[in-house]
Amino acid sequence: MRETEKIWMNGELVDWNDARVHVGAHGLHYGSGVFEGIRAYDTPKGTAVFRLTDHLKRFDNSARLLHMALPYSIEDLRAACNELIAANGLPECYLRPIAFYGYGELGVSAMGNPIDVVIMSWPWGAYLGEEGLKKGISAKISSWQRIGPNVIPHVAKATGVYLNSMLAVTEANRAGYDEAILLTGDGFIADGSGENVFLVKDGELFTPDHSASILPGITRDTVIQIAQYLGYRVHEKPLIRSDLYLADEAFMTGTAAEVTPLRAVDDVEIGVGPITLEIQENYLDTARGRSERWAQWLEYATPAPAEA
Ligand code: PPE
Questions:
Q1: If you count Cβ atoms within 10 Å of the first and of the last residue's Cβ in the chain, which end, N or C, has fewer?
Q2: Does 155 share its domain with 257?
Q3: Are residues 196 and 280 both part of a single domain?
Q4: Which residue has a Cα nearest atom 21 of ligand 1?
Q5: 3-state secondary structure of 66
């Protein structure tokens, strides 16, 4: 990862190398943390954080699901993100807020442990490579099932949940695929290791609904709204792996992955289609401030210069 100057840690900006935690931190032992992934884009009116408030609301919800009372409000965290962006001086970056049970007691119950809250920022290029954004990626249906709603609350973007994703993507990479797609215990398509999944059939879009243990993706929501605005019907419904094999097009969405075409699943070639590319272009135009229609999603990190 590319190091930057500062990290926001428990209310203060500290030097990158000084942002340390004790090895006895509860979150390290038990994965008891929550996090977010947010992108700030360089737009014609300055750096804008895409849907910052929505990400921070999800952060707060994730924490609540882990019985973690964050010592900072959404307002405080928004100010902290802006402070960090200003301190690191990057026109574009990825922001990673994380909150975890810290150093105090060990033992599975987190009662009595302090809560550490940290925000990092660094430049993060195309998640699945520049080539992946243009030419699409390959995915493998994982032999690992996506965690179910009664296993860990999948609606929470919790650190421990990502062991599930890590196993799946590692399995896929070792077998020569770029990414993994996890199914629920009942065989319905859930998520990629770090993305939501969409497919296109007969000019309409399909994506798994919330009952399929998905993370309620903010990019997913953005893409649904943009696609509907462009005139496409979008169906949120249970999907099975055969739907992917027979799809006209498929793609993955995520803050890091943005809109990445899925050109093959389990060696079934799908290719990269025009609707995927249209959605991708519209998504990037939106995030980069080139679309007035969705200007409400851009939260400027620095005051926008006065109109000439
Ligand atoms: N599902 C999963 C499992 C997931 O991790 C992400 C985001 C999404 C869906 C899409 O959510 P959203 O970003 O709100 O559209 N994955 C984040 C972390 C990736 C990582 O490798 O770390 C991200 O994209 O920031």
A1: C
A2: yes
A3: yes
A4: 194
A5: coil
H helix runs in the chain, sequence order: 26-30, 52-65, 74-88, 130-135, 162-174, 218-229, 241-245, 274-287
Please state the pTM of the whole predicted model.
0.96
Average pLDDT, the chain: 96
> 27, 102 in Cβ contact below 8 A?
yes
> Does residue 157 carry a catalytic annotation?
yes
CATH number at residue 189: 3.20.10.10
End-to-end CA distance of the chain: 39
Measured from the Cβ of residue 171, the count of other Cβ atoms closer than 10 Å reads: 16
Secondary structure (3-state) at 48: strand
Cβ-contact 52, 78 below 8 angstroms: yes
Q: Is the CB of 37 under 6 A from ligand 1?
A: yes
Are residues 114 and 136 part of one domain? no
**Residue 84 sits in the same domain as residue 180:** no
Which residues partner with 13 through β-bridges?
8
CB 105 within 8 A of CB 26: yes
pLDDT band for 305, please (50, 70, 90 cuts): low
Choosing from 133, 142, 147, 195 the residue with most ligand 1 atoms within 8 A of its CB, the one to mutate for a pocket test is: 195
Q: Is the CB of 82 under 6 A from ligand 1?
A: no
120-132 per-position pLDDT tens digit: 999 998 888 889 9
Query: Based on the structure, what is the number of domains in the chain?
Result: 2
Q: Is the CB of 195 under 6 A from ligand 1?
A: yes
Pocket flag, ligand 1, residue 218 (CB < 6 Å): yes
Contact 146, 182 (CB under 8 A): yes
**Using the 8-state DSSP alphabet, how is residue 95 labeled?**
E
Question: Ligand 1 centroid vs 155 CA: distance in angstroms?
Answer: 12
